[in-house]
Specification:
Serine Threonine Protein Phosphatase 5, Tetratricopeptide repeat, seven-stranded mixed β-sheet, binds zinc ion, binds ligand BES, 35% helix
Length: 606
């Protein structure tokens, strides 16, 4: 997660952070400025979806029925929409006059529906638009199998409203049922109970009986097959990818058990993953019961599987205990990175987790350097009023958030920390939390009014002030020191064949490549490539870093491979550095030429 939105660059000098805790705010929602819905005053209990997926027109159409309670006798229900065509609205079976509010670039349009005090059901008939932000429609040529089209959604952060009229704030939860009709040769899966085989009607039923926020609504449709990995775990993928995916993720049941041994029972029933086509803009998305994954983590040697630990960890931090607003985004991602590294430490060992901590620290340092150490976007608590919800979602939330938790652990000891976190998840299960509520809970249950500890940690500074605090913990660098020595030897003229790299894992290579001088001398590029075949690497993380080096050094031999990579891979983590390096090094013409050709393979969000 390196990316940061361009608008941020204009804002480097607005120094003040959101300093005052928000008090006594009603649901709207704890000051959620990214929803126009009034689902704080009206209780939206349940959603019934009845949808039909039309690949020819690139439209989802059907109905969304909301089951409501209206304890305050509100006269209007307001939902979020974005580029939806609303055909009609029924309130308890009667057609009503509804209205759509003014279009807002970030928020979309409010949908205003008159309701009586005793309202029970509001049913909306609607269609999505072909450009819906959450949807990526892929032609057969854009899939691995090449025979059938594919569709998937990406609802986080505020894109659910572009495919379902809904109260689209992370602080509003509801259960859902869905019926989805797709072409008979395809299968559909959702963030819910899922089918494991195709049926000949193309009609699938789904149920999510645990309350979730709108950003976790998800749908994928394609020629997919299922393979079990363990009693509670499995993988869905296109048939040509399924075997590779099954091998790569064969430890999933064990990863799940490790996660449970840390912070308590997995509460969602099954945990399945789906491997999407390569245009998926993220590494992974933690849709409940069905993590969506980029195929670029299939390296052939399980070395990138820690990304699944991250998405699985969200089943506690994020999906079970959810950030109340996008200003509290670090509560989702920082907790998850901390949890993910704890899982990794159990699966591998401490020295391995330490490498991830160190790479993460470097990412944090890079983003803080880029934004400026006084930038408000380097605070954990964000202030996104009037801005896109995605703005400010950077490595800061992930890495500074995780380091804050690690610092707390270092101060109180692992045992206390783990009891605290387990209780935290139990106590707040299926609800949302603001940064301020967390700090209060932390004080009450872990720091226990110990003001010297509170000060020593610097809780307020960590959360509300920009930059990286001086007491940020650093992991041990045992394995990376060795990498540093090897890199120095190489730069001093040692032949690559002579380097002591025999036991290196992917993450040692990543560190080696990251810290190469840019541009590296051509003879050294050639020597490295001859010995290690980086240009042909099947490991996307290694390939990405190598390609950045190749672009910087204008190492033409890698250019066809870079072209092939950018043709299919839509993961923003790779697009940004590769296109960025092309622009930085005066190779814009080539960048534009590729972008024009391959743009259709990237998701609208990327
Ligand atoms: N929830 C995020 C993806 C996301 C974040 C989507 C913000 C929309 C807005 C997911 O859990 C995530 O963090 N994915 C990372 C992988 C991870 C190992 C850091 C990614 O996609 O890079
Ligand atoms: Zn995440």
């Amino acid at each position: 997660m390196k990316w940061i939105f361009p608008a941020i660059f204009g804002m480097l000098f607005f120094a003040a952070c959101q300093n005052k805790p928000i008090e006594n705010e009603s649901l709207k929602t704890h000051g959620d400025v990214h929803t126009q819905s009034n689902a704080d005053k009206i209780k939206v209990e349940h959603l019934n979806l009845d949808l039909s997926v039309d690949f020819a027109q690139k439209i989802i159409s059907g109905s969304a029925e909301w089951i409501l309670l209206n304890p305050n006798s509100e006269k209007q229900l307001t939902l979020d929409t974005r580029d939806l065509h609303i055909d009609s609205v029924l309130v308890d079976g009667q057609s009503v006059d509804f209205s759509l509010g003014k279009k807002d670039d970030f928020l979309g349009q409010s949908l205003n529906i008159p309701i009586p005090a005793d309202v029970q059901k509001v049913k909306i008939y609607y269609q999505t638009s072909p450009g819906a932000t959450a949807l990526q429609w892929l032609s057969p040529a854009q899939t691995a199998g090449g025979q059938n089209p594919f569709l998937y959604t990406q609802s986080e952060s505020i894109y659910a409203r572009s495919w379902i009229p809904c109260p689209d704030g992370p602080g509003i939860r509801f259960t859902y049922d869905a019926q989805v009709k797709v072409p008979a040769e395809l299968m559909a899966v959702m963030s819910a109970t899922n089918p494991q085989v195709k049926n000949e009607t193309g009609v699938y039923q789904f149920k999510m009986e645990l309350p979730i926020p709108a950003y976790l609504l998800a749908l994928a449709v394609g020629d997919i097959k299922f393979n079990a990995l363990g009693p509670r775990t499995g993988v869905y993928a296109e048939p040509v990818v399924l075997e590779k995916a099954t091998n790569e993720f064969s430890d999933l049941e064990n990863i799940l058990a490790k996660a449970e041994s840390l912070y308590g029972q997995y509460r969602w029933g099954r945990y399945d993953v789906i491997v999407l086509p390569p245009g998926f803009p993220f590494g992974g998305m933690e849709n409940p019961r069905m993590t969506f994954l980029t195929p670029t983590i299939i390296a052939g040697d399980k070395s990138l599987v820690n990304l699944i630990s991250h998405e699985l960890a969200h089943s506690w931090s994020g999906n079970l205990v959810t950030n109340a607003t996008w200003n509290d985004f670090w509560m989702n991602e920082g907790f998850t990175v901390y949890f993910e590294r704890r899982i990794t430490e159990k699966l591998m060992d401490k020295s391995y987790a330490d490498m991830l901590w160190e790479l993460g620290y470097q990412d944090l340092k890079a983003i803080v350097d880029e934004l400026g150490a006084n930038s408000p976007n380097t605070c954990l608590k964000l202030e996104l009023k009037g801005k896109d919800a995605d703005e400010g979602m950077s490595d800061v939330a992930y890495e500074k958030g995780a380091l804050f938790l690690k610092l707390i652990e270092d101060n109180v000891g692992r045992q206390k920390m783990d009891i605290f976190l387990k209780n935290y998840f139990d106590h707040h299960a299926f609800s949302t939390i603001t940064t301020e509520q967390f700090l209060e809970y932390l004080d009450k249950n872990l720091l226990q009014g110990d003001s010297s500890l509170y000060k020593k940690i610097g809780v307020h500074q960590w959360v509300y002030e920009p930059g990286i605090p001086a007491n940020a913990p650093r992991a041990e660098r045992e394995r990376f020191s060795k990498v540093d020595s090897v890199r120095t030897e190489f730069l001093n003229g040692q032949a690559p064949k002579q380097l002591a790299v025999q036991n290196w894992t992917t993450h040692e290579w990543l560190y080696f490549l990251r810290k190469l001088p840019k541009p590296l001398d051509m003879d050294k590029m050639i020597a490295l490539d001859e010995t290690f075949q980086f240009t042909e690497s099947g490991n996307s993380e290694i390939a990405n870093l190598w390609f950045v080096a190749a672009i910087a050094a204008q190492y033409q031999k890698a250019y066809p491979a870079i072209d092939a990579f950018l043709k299919t891979v839509g993961r923003r983590k790779f697009l940004t550095p590769l296109y960025g390096e092309l622009l930085r090094t005066g190779q814009k013409d080539w960048a534009v030429e590729m972008y024009k050709k391959y743009r259709k393979n990237y998701h609208p969000i990327a």
